[in-house]
Fold this sequence. Notes:
About 40% of the residues lie in helices and about 20% in strands. By secondary structure, the protein is of the alpha+beta class. The protein has one domain: 2-Layer Sandwich (Alpha-Beta Plaits), CATH 3.30.70.1290. Strand 2 and strand 3 (about 55-60) form a beta hairpin.
Amino acid sequence: MAQSLSHILIHVIFSTKDRTPFLKPEIRSRLHGYLAKKCRDLKCVCFRVGGVEYHVHLAIDLPRTLALSKLLEELKATSSKWLKTKSPELSEFAWQGGYVAFSLSFSHLDALCQYIDRQEEHHKDVSFQEEYVNLLEKLKIEYDPRYIWTS
């Protein structure tokens, strides 16, 4: 009998709308747990979720039966609704409209997880905008600078 198998490591990054620093430390770890559980509910293996007050990173193994766009639509919609119920300060919460996602070799998984774990440290030296553009350019992902920072 034929089988369809896959093992697709994806690094996903998305930010809050207008990079508003909604994700204070007291809610951030709960959000990361929520996103990891939602990934598992959608049959993704979630190796790591991390980030800072205005963006998140995920390291996931995307299942062959789920389109990346559907995964991100579900993660962003449900987590946005969930966050809005956690505090009056989050009542206006929204994610940016887009995201960046790229594949990596599983030989890079440990380095990716360490990178995600060190986001607070990392962003003391490098802004999110610099990091984002550097990743796009390093990975040769074409983008239009007129629209990259729009909501």
